[in-house]
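Assess the record.
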Amino acid sequence: MPRATNNPASRARRKKIMKAARGYFGARSKVYTVAKNTVEKGWQYAFRDRKFKKRLYRRLWIARINAATRMEGLSYSRFIHALAQKGIALNRKALADLALNHPRTFKAVLDKVKN
């Protein structure tokens, strides 16, 4: 019985990797084995950094809220605690947007929390 290699599937697998490696430098975009390693490593970085991006944005939002609250004489942690006590359910993303783009509205929220 002749040996079956399922060539169409193998070719498609290699083609997928080579297509993903387009734009890489030198052998990374030309040689399959090198391209495969590079692409797989790139996918690992992409997976890891999708998680990391969330952390970075949260840090940015906290920094913006902290800057805005300190200008009004309140620390970030006391502000967040007071928000929770008053039952105001605004997340950090929304608060940071208010602090940056709508300072009057953010001041109103601050005044509500202070009293």
